């Protein structure tokens, strides 16, 4: 029988529409403006008495609190008005002092029954939701120094293997210099080292006990090192941002030594800076024996007890660069630990070092590059000066019980939060050079709210004009098209929410374009039905022929547009990708509603019935 669907097809359409309705609902529950409180190291220690003081202080300031929640490592205070966020943050920070970090946040308000179905609202981009913008500066001098230290360590190991005596090693600028007992040892060292390190130029100085070998890295090697440092930092920062779960982040190079990082939806700048800007790395070193010469050892304090120190060998077994994977857990005593997997080279070096040193202590040295900023007046203007410094501390000193391989664990960490952050940093890779925050901005939710309001208004106006046109042009069939249009918008929102796609202002433009394209298919079908009626076909035959004969044209037109959207997504960045994603999903939902949903409604109203006249 013409214009009748089997029951299973009606049920399939109903299930898809019901799922679309459910997964689009979370977007009706906007995020609440909130203030987040955490300790400096990430462990919230706010007790009920302090929380009551905060409530009282905000109440005295006329700031209305809707809820206060305790979570795993923070306290979240939801506010009634976004305009009160900054005032509440400043008041709480003044009340609690410097021991706590108080930051702006946006708290999800999706009902629990929707969360149990894994339903969540669409992710909004930086232009709609707000977030943080960082401009980072890469310390190229530190990158050069780190590379020279690694090279110097390798040179010393090579000389020891060949039993060539040296006295000390000095690093200054781009130069490494080594002192030798006599000129013969120096010349032999020059021959060996020069073969392995062609990127240096070599110069011999002095004779006998004053013999020195001066090695200077050439310009080409320095340029390559700086390019490597910036590219490695870009990769590491992207990995860290991905670990944070930020949707549609922007991490890109700006100029010769700067990197721009934009994190949509992140308002807790302190937490973001702690992860993004962390320059922590690890070094694994053997503890020095009592008879080890002083020029081959270094003394370091323990991170959790600075009064306790240990002498370690200058030579490094491996660094955090050799870590291929890391995750945090707890040991048999419930203390936090980090489980580490090494790459092939790192595992070989670790096995070689531990196999011959069973019974000796091995230390895990935590290294963090930081900077102190001071402001002084120069010619009546404030000038910010950065004083970089490095903190090194031992987090673990354990006896080697047996030869280690590619997998082992690190203990001695202060808290689960510290273990989780260390695992994240090791997993995402270490920075090739320290980075400093040259600029940071927080884009507030008020800007996002204004953009969203304008975007929604444009969608509403476009939807209204399309609805009026379809009603005036196609009467009852216009009603079918308008219902399908509303369902199409619902399915599009649901699809973007389920896939975690990010909505930006260009994405809203894609939605407006989708609304126009969605009715295009219905226009083709309805006009075809009109033509078939004019040729003398019956109502049922005209409806059937209209859908069947317009099918090919509709699919061809939408596939070409979909191909363009896919190309935009593959070669575009940022806003262009947002537009392409919205357009692609909109094409798929439009095909479904135009070819199946409207056909189902027409079939239910006219299928199998003796209709003499069609209102179209």
From TrEMBL:
<feature type="coiled-coil region">
    <location>
        <begin position="51"/>
        <end position="85"/>
    </location>
</feature>
<keyword id="KW-0812">Transmembrane</keyword>
<dbReference type="Pfam" id="PF02355">
    <property type="entry name" value="SecD_SecF_C"/>
</dbReference>
<feature type="transmembrane region" description="Helical">
    <location>
        <begin position="507"/>
        <end position="529"/>
    </location>
</feature>
<feature type="transmembrane region" description="Helical">
    <location>
        <begin position="578"/>
        <end position="602"/>
    </location>
</feature>
<feature type="transmembrane region" description="Helical">
    <location>
        <begin position="455"/>
        <end position="472"/>
    </location>
</feature>
<dbReference type="Pfam" id="PF21760">
    <property type="entry name" value="SecD_1st"/>
</dbReference>
<dbReference type="InterPro" id="IPR027398">
    <property type="entry name" value="SecD-TM"/>
</dbReference>
<dbReference type="InterPro" id="IPR005791">
    <property type="entry name" value="SecD"/>
</dbReference>
<dbReference type="GO" id="GO:0065002">
    <property type="term" value="P:intracellular protein transmembrane transport"/>
</dbReference>
<dbReference type="Pfam" id="PF07549">
    <property type="entry name" value="Sec_GG"/>
</dbReference>
<protein>
    <recommendedName>
        <fullName>Protein translocase subunit SecD</fullName>
    </recommendedName>
</protein>
<feature type="domain" description="SecD export protein N-terminal TM">
    <location>
        <begin position="2"/>
        <end position="104"/>
    </location>
</feature>
<comment type="subunit">
    <text>Forms a complex with SecF. Part of the essential Sec protein translocation apparatus which comprises SecA, SecYEG and auxiliary proteins SecDF-YajC and YidC.</text>
</comment>
<dbReference type="GO" id="GO:0015450">
    <property type="term" value="F:protein-transporting ATPase activity"/>
</dbReference>
<feature type="domain" description="Protein export membrane protein SecD/SecF C-terminal">
    <location>
        <begin position="438"/>
        <end position="602"/>
    </location>
</feature>
<feature type="transmembrane region" description="Helical">
    <location>
        <begin position="479"/>
        <end position="501"/>
    </location>
</feature>
<keyword id="KW-1133">Transmembrane helix</keyword>
<dbReference type="InterPro" id="IPR054384">
    <property type="entry name" value="SecDF_P1_head"/>
</dbReference>
<keyword id="KW-0653">Protein transport</keyword>
<feature type="transmembrane region" description="Helical">
    <location>
        <begin position="550"/>
        <end position="572"/>
    </location>
</feature>
<dbReference type="InterPro" id="IPR022813">
    <property type="entry name" value="SecD/SecF_arch_bac"/>
</dbReference>
<dbReference type="InterPro" id="IPR022646">
    <property type="entry name" value="SecD/SecF_CS"/>
</dbReference>
<comment type="similarity">
    <text>Belongs to the SecD/SecF family. SecD subfamily.</text>
</comment>
<dbReference type="Pfam" id="PF13721">
    <property type="entry name" value="SecD-TM1"/>
</dbReference>
<dbReference type="GO" id="GO:0043952">
    <property type="term" value="P:protein transport by the Sec complex"/>
</dbReference>
<feature type="domain" description="Protein translocase subunit SecDF P1">
    <location>
        <begin position="230"/>
        <end position="287"/>
    </location>
</feature>
<comment type="function">
    <text>Part of the Sec protein translocase complex. Interacts with the SecYEG preprotein conducting channel. SecDF uses the proton motive force (PMF) to complete protein translocation after the ATP-dependent function of SecA.</text>
</comment>
<dbReference type="InterPro" id="IPR055344">
    <property type="entry name" value="SecD_SecF_C_bact"/>
</dbReference>
<keyword id="KW-0175">Coiled coil</keyword>
<keyword id="KW-1003">Cell membrane</keyword>
<keyword id="KW-0472">Membrane</keyword>
<dbReference type="GO" id="GO:0005886">
    <property type="term" value="C:plasma membrane"/>
</dbReference>
<dbReference type="Pfam" id="PF22599">
    <property type="entry name" value="SecDF_P1_head"/>
</dbReference>
<keyword id="KW-0813">Transport</keyword>
<dbReference type="InterPro" id="IPR048631">
    <property type="entry name" value="SecD_1st"/>
</dbReference>
<dbReference type="InterPro" id="IPR048634">
    <property type="entry name" value="SecD_SecF_C"/>
</dbReference>
<dbReference type="GO" id="GO:0006605">
    <property type="term" value="P:protein targeting"/>
</dbReference>
<feature type="domain" description="SecDF P1 head subdomain">
    <location>
        <begin position="300"/>
        <end position="433"/>
    </location>
</feature>
<keyword id="KW-0811">Translocation</keyword>
């Amino acid at each position: 029988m013409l214009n009748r669907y089997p029951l299973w097809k009606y049920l399939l359409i109903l299930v898809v529409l019901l799922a679309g309705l459910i997964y689009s609902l979370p977007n009706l529950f906007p995020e609440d403006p909130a203030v987040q409180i955490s300790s400096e190291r990430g462990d919230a220690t706010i007790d009920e008495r302090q929380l009551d003081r905060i409530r009282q202080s905000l109440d005295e300031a006329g700031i209305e609190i809707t809820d206060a929640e305790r979570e795993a490592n923070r306290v979240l205070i939801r506010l009634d008005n976004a305009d009160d966020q900054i005032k509440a943050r400043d008041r709480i920070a003044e009340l609690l002092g410097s021991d706590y970090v108080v930051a702006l946040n946006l708290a999800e308000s999706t009902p629990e029954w929707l969360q149990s179905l894994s339903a969540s609202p669409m992710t909004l981009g930086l232009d709609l939701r707000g977030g943080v913008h960082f401009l980072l500066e890469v310390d190229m001098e530190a990158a050069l120094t780190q590379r020279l230290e690694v090279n110097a360590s390798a040179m010393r190991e090579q000389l020891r293997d060949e039993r060539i005596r040296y006295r000390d090693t000095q690093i200054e600028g781009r130069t490494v210099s080594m002192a030798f007992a006599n000129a013969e040892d120096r010349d032999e060292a020059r021959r060996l080292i020069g073969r392995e390190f062609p990127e240096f130029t070599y110069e011999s100085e002095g004779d006998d006990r004053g013999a020195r070998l001066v090695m200077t890295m050439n310009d080409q090697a320095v340029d390559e090192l700086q390019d490597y440092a910036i590219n490695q930092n870009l990769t590491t920062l992207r990995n860290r941002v991905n670990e944070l779960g930020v949707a549609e982040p922007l991490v890109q190079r700006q100029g010769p030594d700067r990197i721009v990082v934009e994190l949509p939806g992140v308002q807790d700048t302190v937490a973001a800076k702690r992860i993004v800007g962390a320059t922590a790395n690890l070094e694994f070193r053997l503890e020095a024996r009592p008879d080890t010469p002083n020029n081959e050892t270094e003394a370091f304090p323990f991170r959790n007890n600075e009064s306790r120190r240990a002498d370690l060998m200058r030579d490094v077994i491996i660094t955090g660069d050799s870590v291929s994977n890391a995750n945090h857990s707890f040991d048999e005593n419930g203390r936090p630990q980090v489980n580490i997997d090494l790459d092939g080279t790192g595992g070989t070096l670790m096995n070689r070092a531990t196999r011959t040193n069973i019974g000796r202590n091995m230390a895990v040295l935590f290294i963090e590059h930081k900077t102190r900023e001071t402001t002084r007046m120069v010619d009546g203007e404030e000038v910010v000066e950065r004083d970089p410094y490095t903190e090194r501390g031992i987090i673990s000193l354990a006896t080697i019980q047996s030869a280690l391989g590619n997998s082992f664990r690190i203990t001695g960490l202060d808290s689960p939060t510290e273990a989780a952050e260390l695992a994240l940093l090791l997993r995402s890779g270490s920075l090739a050079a320290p980075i400093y925050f040259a600029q940071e901005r927080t884009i507030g939710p008020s800007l996002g709210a204004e953009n969203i309001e304008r975007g929604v208004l444009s969608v509403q106006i476009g939807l209204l004009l399309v609805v009026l046109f379809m009603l005036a042009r196609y009467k009852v069939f216009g009603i079918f098209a308008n219902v399908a249009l509303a369902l199409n918008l619902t399915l599009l929102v649901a699809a973007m929410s389920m896939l975690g796609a990010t909505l930006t202002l260009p994405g809203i433009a894609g939605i407006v374009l989708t609304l126009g394209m969605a009715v295009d298919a219905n226009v083709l079908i309805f006009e075809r039905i009109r033509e078939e009626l004019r040729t003398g076909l019956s109502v049922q035959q005209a409806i059937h022929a209209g859908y069947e004969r317009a099918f090919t044209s509709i699919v061809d037109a939408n596939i070409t547009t979909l191909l363009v959207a896919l190309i935009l997504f593959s070669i575009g960045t940022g806003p262009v990708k947002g537009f392409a994603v919205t357009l692609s999903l909109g094409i798929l939902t439009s095909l479904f509603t135009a070819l199946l949903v409207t056909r189902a409604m027409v079939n239910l109203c006219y299928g199998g019935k003796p209709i003499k006249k069609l209102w179209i």
